[in-house]
């Protein structure tokens, strides 16, 4: 890592510590944990939570210096900008989705994606894989400081969509279907699709996936769940980890759906005992149902809160 890159990384990580992300996350849980009927440290009703939580109101503003129990007014602005998603500074057009506030924002994976991977992985991916034409990039230096600091979000984003005589397909066109909500071929041949996304994914936003699924419902007269279902995993980070029941098997359910016509009304999920970030007061065998969106795992009001059997999938009011 060269000196400049190290300075940028240090300054990013000191501008927001992981403990401060954990503070926000704990305040989210304070407002939202009980929405699902169980005060268990898990926020099942992700979208009810976006109405219930207010960063300005629910996280104390530091009267003076940062001490870990508050955010400065400037930090609240930064966090609002992060969670609102990137925008073109001239047109205010969204470059990518916004992100939901969630109970898994204080964990290692979340923080790493915000303040380490952004320097380590993303510049190489943007420079070399997603841009037309590919930008010369020295992967021996973390983040290639020169590349990162010269990137103009207002103009360089267009290169993700660009083609030229040599690169006749853009990075975006290669990575995404031309019309993501047109699953007619899949649907009409009787195939099924199960999509999973953690609600505390700091790199790809679950809101983006939810918006895609809502679009899919719109073009299928709200019958899309006959062939495609989305399972949000509350508190789960990017593909795993977080404060979540992130151990589950979708494949057997998919096979039963395709071969026996048994639609997966819920998926059994459990915590992974090797996840060292889980709170000590959670059972090592805690389980929860994963529910097809927009349903939310809701506590029945009686029985052991560590057991999935005492939760049902309910559509929020
Ligand atoms: Ca809860």
Write the layout of secondary structure elements.
Layout: H1 3-15, H2 18-32, H3 46-52, H4 55-58, H5 73-84, H6 108-115, H7 117-120, H8 122-130, H9 145-150, H10 153-156, H11 158-161, H12 171-175, H13 184-188, E1 193-198, H14 206-218, E2 228-233, E3 236-237, E4 240-242, E5 247-248, H15 250-260, E6 267-270, E7 287-290, E8 296-299, E9 311-314
Parallel strand pairs: 1-2
Antiparallel strand pairs: 3-4, 5-6, 6-7, 8-9
How would you explain this protein's 3D organization?
It is a single chain. This protein is α+β, with helices and mostly antiparallel strands and 317 residues long. The protein has a domain at 184-314. The chain has 15 helices and nine strands. The strands form four sheets. The protein has a three-stranded antiparallel β-sheet with strand order 5-6-7, with no helix packed on it. Strands 1-2 form a two-stranded parallel sheet. A hairpin with a 2-residue loop joins β3 and β4. The chain is globular and about 55 Å long. The N and C termini lie far apart (51 Å). The mean pLDDT is 94. The structure holds calcium ion. Calcium ion is lined by residues 33, 36, 38, 40, 42-44. Calcium ion (CA) is lined by residues 33, 36, 38, 40, 42-44.
- Percent strand equals 5-15%
- Low-pLDDT ranges: none
The global form is globular
- Given helix and strand content, the structural type is alpha+beta
Strands, total number: 9
* Helix and strand sequence: HHHHHHHHHHHHHEHEEEEHEEEE
Short description:
With 317 residues, the protein is of the alpha+beta class.
